[in-house]
Design a protein that fits this description.
By secondary structure, the chain is an alpha/beta fold. Helices cover about 45% and strands about 15% of the residues. The radius of gyration is 19 Å and the shape is globular.
Amino acid sequence: MDEVGVRFPVGPPKMNLPKHIAIIPDGNRRWARKKKLPEFFGHREGAKTAEKILKEALNEGVVCITFWGLSLDNAKKRSLNELRFLFEIFENQFEKLLTDKIIFEKEIKIDFLGRWREIFPEKLKHLMEGVITKTKHHKKHNLTFLMAYNGFDEMTEAIKKISIGKDINSEVVKKNLWSHDLPPVDLVIRTGGEPHWSNGFMMWDAGDAQLYFTKTLWPDFAGKEFKEALKIFSESSRRFGE
């Protein structure tokens, strides 16, 4: 407090955090090839990175985080051996979520968006349904995985649902998206050094998002760079078309 009684804030100013972060974790296979390892090693390391970044996001106070786990094209076109390994990784990760106390302490609602119910093996689908059921009443955080996902597919399905209605506006479109329970994406992080959009990724929800592209391959993406992405977002001015 100064001599005239004015109180000044103590410590650094509070960071303006994104409420919803969506991540395109690119570069698993290239990471493995660079190290002369089988490609599935990259997917395994990528899963470990996802765990670390999720915990970092929660520690920073992010409310919603969305990971692109597998595109629809990849689910249809990758080799059977690679898909089998990916499904095994998904099983291991989702089993961990069912027993991870942080999911329940922080009341994290987990959901999966995409065509996974049509494509994934029965055992994995059953496990994913269990995760949804066990966390569906949680209300403090959202953790969403895009599985067998394609943004054009999501928009097409929404349009089909509302095509019989008379009044179409942005609220109606959002209500009919797979992501209808999620807020707009504030920040998109794409790793792997390829600064482009893929398959119409969350095209409606990410319409006003800030973008963070990095050359870092996903398995090497660490908490330090994640915090840097948050810092850049906090210091940016979002104009929303103004």
